[in-house]
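pinging the channel bc i need a second pair of eyes. not urgent but kinda urgent?? the chain im working w is below, pasted from the shared doc
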Amino acid sequence: MDNVTREILEKYKNKLKSELGVETGEQEEGEIENTSTKEYKDFKNEMIPVHFSIYEKACNMSEKIFRIAPDEKKATEIQNAINTAHLNITPAGVASFAILGPLIIIMTGLFVSSGIPLAFKQDPNMFFMVFSLLVGVCIMFPLQRIPLFMADSWRLKASSQMVICIFYIVTYMRHTSNLELAIEFASSHLSGPLALDMKKVLWDIETQRFSTLKDSLDTYLETWRKYNLEFIESMHLIESSLYESSEERRLGLLEKSLDVMLEETFEKMLHYAHGLKSPITSLHMLGIILPVLGLVILPLVVNFMGNIKWYYLATVYNIAIPGAVFYLGKRILASRPTGYGDTDISEMNPELKKFKKINMKILGMEFGISPLFLAITVFAVCFLIGLSPLLAHVFAGTENIPIGEDDDFTTCKHSYCLNEYRTDETTGSKDGPYDLIPSVLSVFVPLSLGISVGLYYSIKSKRLIKLRQDAKVLEREFSSALFQLGNRLSDGLPAEVTFGKVAEVMQDTESGRFFDKVSNNIRKLGFSVNEAIFNQKVGAIKSYPSSTIQSSMKVLTQAIKKSPIIAAQAVLTISRYMKEMHRVDERLKDLLADIIASMKSQVSYLAPVISGIVIGITSMMTNILGKLGPALLARSNEGDMSVPMDFFGIGIPSYYFQIFVGIYVIEIIYILSILVNGIENGYDKLNEEYTIGSNLMRGTILYTTLALIVMVVFNTIADVVISSTLATT
């Protein structure tokens, strides 16, 4: 009696025992472990993101404090989204938080902008009062739709695994026509939300919510009817194969189910790629081009309108614009159809988690240091350097230190003023620092943020990406290796011998080395095929952390138990499907190539370069207007010309201007990196972290270097021109 038959018998023995109270014998070894309630809940707790639980707590608390029930139609829509995202909240909780949250923001903003200033006998800050009111009103509608956004995000993550899910089920059912075991097999090899969904399909049977697997599965598939009909059609074809008496027709339905999934995926992605150009262009213009162009004219506006403060602009550029870009980007990703997504290989093999750390050997002992420690250290050092002009002013009273020759048109009456602070003649307020050296030091503030975050993500993902890329090399040639393996098995050779034969033919390739390691484990260590591949210490799969290869070998070891001929058929089918999936994947990447290339250029150099140049121009204009204003006013006082006293403001210090622009650049790089990865790869957390890390490191260094060079060069030229101009007038 093979393991599959034993598992089926044991399952129905337990069912009889629970329903009739009949003792059916002791439990046999080798049965598949059922997905119990506790296991499902533990698995759910691991899978659900942290921000989901925070949102759940906020909604549940809001419902207790200030309960608001939405209308019936909206409540049904929200409840469906809650079920999809596996949230432990109610529609009333969502509606309550959507009202209470903005009210808290508005009240907090009013208190900070008016209550605190009035307590110190100062005028209220109207800008922040209006801003907090607008933010509170504007986020009321999005907050009502947060469960819908979470459901869209959940579907994006789940749909990235749908093709491979059908692949796992079909390959398993080719040799064992049992849908429950096939779903169990798929759920154990999938990751992300779809693995949780497959677990829940089984869990609903174990908890007797549904009496049959068909009822449970069909209920789950209905949740995808509006979003992914090809997945439903493929699963129904798989279900239909169970009722076919002819083996040929059964296998034909299984093959058709995967073909349907592949072809429909390509067609939907084709329409998505064609419709993507317009929203991406809008996002580019509204989120990058217009804000950056606005930076060019801001120095003129600020210098002629002295009531505009730097923190007003920082609020717009560091909160409002990035928030809008992030929202639009998420909406674009939410419309992405089913595709492909890779997993974090450290989730497959927990031993690989050590590659997320900085490994050091001290006295022969290996220690793993979290990259967060290095990131915080780099951030603290660079941030303190960037804040040093302010710290010197606040704690040492250092300002307007004279340097160079006498000059009546500067604050300190010399050619240069170190840590220069200027007084606005119209309001009497003082602001600064304005001179070049603090502006140069200010680049360390965005540098601290970009480099520290970039280092954290790069170190955390770089080595894992390298391992996964090595596994990808094996995957690309693995279909050919499996084809040869299947042919050898068809000749009647035992699997133990077949691996060595194929390794000889494919020597000096990754597949050859993989099969050679399996063969050596069998011959030298006396392992079975299963042990030679999956042994925890020396198994061949340990060096190639790939879910595709792992599942292929799982199917092979299961099929070998039946016969070499069945194993050969399973392996040949896997080989064909892998080639088909690779072909469709490459066609999808080709469709998105132009859009992805454009977005990557924005992230890599356009946004950092344009912003860096704008900073240099802004610094030069602030310098020119800051010295030209007092000179013209002096000429006016002497009667040479007439200039209004409030014609020139003191402007925004380049120090602050550069900081909030630099932070804006980092935020845009971060958001666009998420968007690029999501469009190109679907849900792929590991590649997302690697993309963010590499883009932030490169973009931040490019921006700060360019801003530094342009500021120094342009200010030097401006000083020479102003000096010669004022000397001749």
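so The chain has three domains: 45-155, 275-460+592-728, 464-579. and DSSP finds 27 helices and six strands in the chain. — does that match what u expected or am i reading it wrong
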